[in-house]
Structures are given as structure tokens and as C-alpha cells.
Amino acid sequence: MNETQLDNKDEPKIKGTEHETLKKKYVDECLERKRLFNQVIELKGNIRVFCRCRPLNQGEVSSGCSSVVEFNSFKDNELQILCGDSSRKLFKFDHVFGPQDDQEAVFAQTSPVVTSVLDGFNVCIFAYGQTGTGKTFTMEGTPESRGVNYRTLEELFRISEERSCTMKYELSVSMLEVYNEKIRDLLVEDSNHGVKKLEIKQAADGTLEVPGLEEACVHSVDEVWKQLKIGSQNRAVGSTNINELSSRSHCLLRVTVKGENLVNGQKTRSHLWLVDLAGRGNCKTVMFVQISPSSADSVETLCSLNFASRVRGVEHGPLHKQADPQELFKYKQMAEKQRQNEKEIMKLQNSLLSLQLRFSAREQLCRSLQEKTRDLESQLAEERKARLQQENRVAAASAKPSSSFAFSYQNQKVWTQKKPPVGPSKSRPPLRGLTNLPSMPKIPCKTGTANHTSTDEKENISGTVRTINTKTLMRPRRVSIAGRPPQALTQFHQPGRQVSIATLHPDSQMLSTTKPADYSTIRTWIPQPQRRVSIATFCPNSHMLSTVKPVDYSNVRTLIPQPKRRVSLSTERRGSQLFSTMTPQNTFKFQTDTGSVRGRLSFARESRRLSKLFSPMPVLKSTPEGEVTPVTGRSKYLGSPSVQVGSWKPKHPTVVALHRKHFVWSPLKQRSQKNDRKSLLPSRTSDC
Ligand SMILES: Nc1ncnc2c1ncn2[C@@H]1O[C@H](COP(=O)(O)OP(=O)(O)OP(=O)(O)O)[C@@H](O)[C@H]1O
């Protein structure tokens, strides 16, 4: 049951396959038939000359004329003409039709050529001969005895119907007359100028065309016959003498056959010319030479036969199928487009190859950069580790009491030879502000009158009276100077930026005896000549002394080459004096009359904190009552305006911090074009 169902199910497939196979075989057979048929026609000759001799008519018989044409019953292609001197002249043609041969016999020899029209070849059939020899009778015939034209068209329709399964044909007819070297369209009548006049023009492919020639579609022989009647009627109307017309004009019937192969889509367009006088050179030609058997016409007969013999000697080259010009144009366009596409493809391939090469080169570069990045990261990690270790060592050393003030920086040799590790801002060490200072002893100063904006600062300052613990203050101090993050540091290098380093002496005065030579060692750290660094000292209970000369500060500008570096300053007391000594390696010390000072310079990464640290620093002066007031005067470096003693009230957070912190190192805030805040630091040398 299942097998039966499967068989029924698969049966259409099998039939479809067989159908395709048979169709392919059929097409192949048709092509082979055409090839062999055309070969036979070519072997017979593309110009075939038939000789037809009409019978003696009643008038000729009555006048006693005899036949001068002798036929060979064994050879249907020869005839002999009896000449006046009793000689015979032999003529050979493709076929010789005698008086006994009817229209059917004549067309039997013509029909193979007609078939070539449906195969896509041009065919021309025409008749030539003396007047009254039967040209019209052969070509047109009579209703009772149809001629070549009618039979040819009838054959075309028959074959086209026979090939309807594989071929589709469209037939149309045109009819024209050549008279006095003028061409007239016999199927179209012009009411004003008679029949339509045409011209013969040579097409690009060498064929002769008649542009504008009317083509009437025909689907049967009857329709063809109807068109032929119209043409014959127009031909008669255009001439006043029908006998003259018959002798001098040439009538041509053109049948256009458009064929389309339904299997492979091949299209053809061919013409069948049925001419009773002249034919066309690139086509299969059948010429009927019409002769009269009468002895009275022997001279004309010989002329016609000689001409026909010469025509028969004309040889055509191999003929070709006539493709549809529109199809040919379409194929040419497709070929041109194909060539353009091939060029475009070649261009794109070249472009692709170029891009691939560039991509490979960049890929190689990317790999190289990645390797380099990995090496740098590894180096960075090592440097971080080394720096951390060194910081730990420095921190441990700073924790121990020192007998001298020292200004130390971390491994200057390493910093100057290698770039500092650059990492994300989050991983940078935090700003070291003023928090690493020892707590200041209480001094008899009153800061409660200061007006601050910060609540915390108010709590720290208001109502506090501090006294100075000399022992505590004389301990070695460390002062931090905060730098700016990389972005802020760029501004830090702008002209007008000032950095101050202040030291605070707990007793009554602050001394700074740093020599220019000492600061010159720092110069090499600051590449920007516009940088100004000032070191200021102030004493909370009496006055501020600054012994650093301007030239010294200008030298300090060149001290900080790397914005991300930190420099530590430390102060140290030796006995009753402060010493400050700075060495190029890792210690900066400077001596004062009261001791040495060691501090630390650090560059912070938070601009907010820096803005506070870089704020103008007030100069305080102790009053006899123990109150700390700003020192009057104007900083020669900062351009600070004079401040009225006793009237100054700190507002800036940094100043507030100075009240809270008794020992401050702070770079001054950069001068701004918009807000040119004046420094409150006193002149360095005025109080020295
Ligand atoms: N093979 C033939 N058998 C019988 N009658 C013929 C044959 N050929 C011609 N005739 C007769 O001969 C006469 C003249 O024929 P036809 O008019 O066809 O000659 P033609 O060559 O066309 O003359 P023209 O050049 O003047 O037109 C016609 O009456 C025709 O019937």
C-alpha cells in the first residue's frame, strides 16, 4: 500500500524528468535537422536557377511556329536550344520544367528553400524572362492553379502550425513596386499623393531595408491573398497603361517571419522576397528563367538562358541565420554591461587587496604597540614598587628626631632619569596639605574676632587663646607644599603663579637664611621660567621675616620639572638655631639664625584643595596683648595691597587654616586676570 502510494507520488516526478529528457532530445534533433537541411541547400547552391518553358500557345501554333527547345527525359536539369544553323546549344540549370510540368511540380522544387525562411534564413524567389513567357503565371498563378507565392505562404503557415509546440511564428507581408527607380508602398494609399513613396537604405549589418514599409500581420493564406489584392489594385491605379506597367515595373512581395524558440528562447527574424524580376544578392535565391518554346522567340530565349546561366554561376558565401535586430541589440548591451562589470570587479579587487595590505600593516603596528604597552606597564609597576619602598624609608627616617633641618626630596636621581609613574588620578597619593604639622602650643593670641565662612573653622578658632611651647616648636618640623594635579599644574606654570614656602618660628621671630645657592639647586626641578616660588616665614606672635631674595625665588622657578613629583621639605633645629640645608640629592636644608628648616613639597592632585592651599596667605603680627594681626605692607612678589593693622579679618579658608595651623608651607594662589587677589605676605627683606 505504501509502495503504491510512493509510486503514485513519485510518478509526476518521473514523468517530468522524462518530459525534460525528451524535450532536450527533440531540440537536439531539430537543430541537427536544420543543420543537415541547410547543408543540403548549400550543396545545391544558394542561388538556384530553374528554367521553365511554357507550352506553345494557340497563336503560336496557328502561326506555324515550332519548338526550338529539346528536353532530355533522363536529365531533368538540361535542355538544348536548336539554333538557326541546325546546331544545338546545351544549357544546364538546377532544374528544367517543361510544358508538361504543372504548378505543383514547380513548387515541389521550391519548398525546401521556403522552409529555410522558418529556420531564420532570408529567401528570395523571383522570375525573369521575356514578356509573355509565364513569369506571373509561375509566381502568382491563377485561382485554379496557384503559383509559387500562394503555395509558399501556404507552406509557411502549415509548417508554423506544425512547429507550434516548440516555435512561435509571427508573419507579416509587405508589398512594394519599383518603377522608374522609385519605390512605392502598395499596401498603403496616400489620398493626397497617391501611394506612399519609400527609399531603400542599407542597414549597419549590410542588409537592405525599406524604412517605413507597411507590414500587415497575416494569420492565414486568405489574409495574405487579401493583401496581395490590395497591392495589385494600387499598382494598377498608379499606372495608366497596364501593359507598360507589366513590362517595366517590378513587384516585390516581402514576407517577414519572426520566430521564437519556446524551448531555448532563441529569436529569429527573416524575410521571404517574392519578386518577379529581380532578387536580392545575402539570401537563398530561386530564379525562374522563363522561356518560350517558339522558334520565333529563339533569339530572346538564348539571351535569357545565357543570362540565367551567368546568374547560376554566381556563388554566395556561407549564409547565416538572421537574428532579430532587437535581440541582437539587447545581446550587445548585455555584452557591454558584462565588460563594465568585469572592469568594476577588477577595480574592487584591487581596492580590496590594497585595504588588506593596509590592514595587515596596521595590525602589525597594533601588536607592536601592545607589546610596548605591556613592557611599559611592567616597568611602571616596578617603579611604583620602588617608589613606595623609598617613601616608606623616607617616612621612617622623618619620624626620627634629627639634629639638623633638612630639605629632602625623594631620589632625585631616579626622578630625573625616569618619568614618574603615571596612573589614574584615583591611584595618585592624596594631597598632603597642612595636616602633618605638629600641634602648635598655645600662645597668647586671640583669633576669635576673625570672620570665617566655615563653621568648622569657626569652632576651631573662635575663643581660642594659644600659648607657645618653645620646646615643642623647636622640634624638627616638616612643612608640606602642595602641588597641583597635571591639569592644574599647567596653570601652575602660567606667569603670575606664585608659590610660597613659609616657616613659622614659635618664639618671636622667623629667620630664613637660605642662600641663593641653596635654591639654585632646586632650580633644575622647575622648567617654567614664569614660575615663581616664594618662601615666606612668619612668626605668630610678633612679625614675619623673610630672608629669601627675589633672585632666589626666581631661581626656584626652575626647580620643578615634573608636575607629578613630590618634594619634601623639612625643618630641623640644632640647638637654638634653625638650619636649612638643601642638597641636590635628597635633602634640602637652609639655615636660619635660630635653626634649620626642613620641609616637604608635595604636588596635590585635587584642584579644590589646591585652591585653598594657593590662596593668599595672611601675615600675622602679634600685638603686645598677644593678639595676632596681619602685618601691614605689600608683598613685593605678590603685589599684595597694604592691609590696615588690626582691621584685617581673615576670610579666606587658607587664612583661617593659618590661624588654626601654626606652621604652614603653602604656595600662593595664582594671580587671576579676573580676580587678581593680592597677597598678604610682607616684603621679604623689610622685616629681616
Ligand atoms: N506554364 C504555363 N502553362 C500554361 N499556360 C501558361 C504557362 N506560362 C504562361 N502561361 C500563359 O501564358 C500567358 C502569359 O503569361 P504571363 O502573363 O504570366 O507572362 P508574363 O511573363 O508575366 O508577361 P509580362 O511580362 O508581360 O507580364 C498567360 O496567359 C498564361 O496563362
How would you sum up this structure, described in words?
The structure is a single chain. This protein has 688 residues and is of the alpha+beta class. It folds into two domains: 283 residues, Kinesin motor domain (Kinesin, 3-Layer(aba) Sandwich); 257 residues, no CATH class. Strands 1, 5, 6, 7, 8, 9, 12, 13, 14 and 15 form a ten-stranded mixed beta sheet that branches. Helix 14 packs parallel to helix 15. It starts with a helix and ends in a 28-residue tail after the last helix. Adenosine-5'-triphosphate (ATP) binds next to helix 4 and helix 7.
Highest CATH level, the class of the largest domain: Alpha Beta
Cα gyration radius (Å): 63 Å
What hetero molecules are bound to the protein chains? adenosine-5'-triphosphate
| Content of β-strand | 15-25%
Cα end-to-end separation: 126 Å
Mean pLDDT: 64
Approximate helicity band: 25-40%
Counted by DSSP, the helix tally is 17
The CATH superfamily label of the largest domain reads Kinesin motor domain
Please state the second-level CATH architecture of the largest domain: 3-Layer(aba) Sandwich
Overall, the morphology is: rod-shaped
Class from secondary-structure proportions? alpha+beta
Number of strands: 27
